[in-house]
Design goal:
This protein is α+β, with helices and mostly antiparallel strands. The chain folds into 2 domains: about 5-130, 434 Repressor (Amino-terminal Domain) (Orthogonal Bundle); about 140-235, no CATH class. It contains 9 helices and 9 strands. Helix 2 (about 40-50) crosses helix 4 (about 70-75).
Length: about 240
């Protein structure tokens, strides 16, 4: 790291070296291990279900370079959120830079902004990867659950109160999907105009714009198609 001094004697950083040492990452990691009663890095790797190499990546402050799935597993094992793991075990730490230092060094200010933007982009990408990995695991449920609810509503022996109680159990999951901007494409038994980009025709014949009926809803995740709704020709 190359340093220079301002007129008031304050040290200025002029290169983009890590803002925390390996020893600091080691100390943080060991503190988390003690708080979680994890006896060693080997045990951490085993509990998290990741390789020891991935633990070493975290230990060396390279969380921002790791794949989201092993990082997520390590964060859970350490009792951290994904964002906390990135903030505590990434090479560049914005909280170590004083406002005065940044203000008095144009080069450092530009580098600081670049690193802030880079970290923001990495956090966003990690969040999107985490959402996608979670939705991949939920795909079967997303495909089947709306139809199960629809069929349950047709059963006279199941009271409205019983059905409401069942749906209430899954309210937090639906709220999470809303937060992630997961939107259904159609609803079970809904009549819609056939659109091949949003629908998969599983029975009968239909041209674009023809009336079809939704058998299983599809889903969009933010601006991306997760999977198309399954539809059948109507009439």
């Amino acid at each position: 790291m190359i340093n220079s001094c301002s007129g008031n004697g304050e040290q200025l950083l002029t290169t983009s070296q890590p803002m925390a040492s390996s020893a600091e990452y080691e100390q943080r990691l060991q503190a988390h291990l003690r708080s979680r009663k994890i006896s060693s890095l080997r045990v951490l790797a085993k509990q998290a279900g990741v390789s020891r190499w991935q633990v070493q990546q975290l230990r060396q402050g390279r969380a921002d370079q790791m794949r989201v799935e092993p990082l997520r597993k390590l964060a859970i094992a350490l009792g951290l959120s994904l964002e906390e793991a990135i903030a505590q075990f990434s090479l560049f730490r914005s909280d170590t830079l004083s406002a005065q230092t940044v203000a008095t060094s144009p080069d450092l200010a530009a580098e600081y902004r670049r690193l802030q933007d880079q970290l923001t982009q990495q956090r966003t990408q990690l969040q999107l990867e985490f959402e996608q990995a979670s939705l991949d695991r939920l795909e079967s449920w997303l495909r089947q659950w709306p139809r199960i609810v629809h069929l349950a509503r047709q059963r006279p022996e199941l009271s409205a109160a019983q059905l409401d109680a069942l749906l209430k159990q899954l309210l937090p999951l639906h709220q999470l999907l809303d937060t992630w901007e997961v939107e259904p494409i159609g609803s079970v038994d809904e009549a819609v105009a056939y659109a091949p980009q949003w629908h998969t025709l599983v029975q009968g014949l239909a041209a674009e714009g023809d009336r079809v009926r939704v058998q299983r809803p599809g889903y969009r995740h933010r601006d991306r198609l997760l999977f198309r709704a399954e539809v059948v020709a109507d009439g």
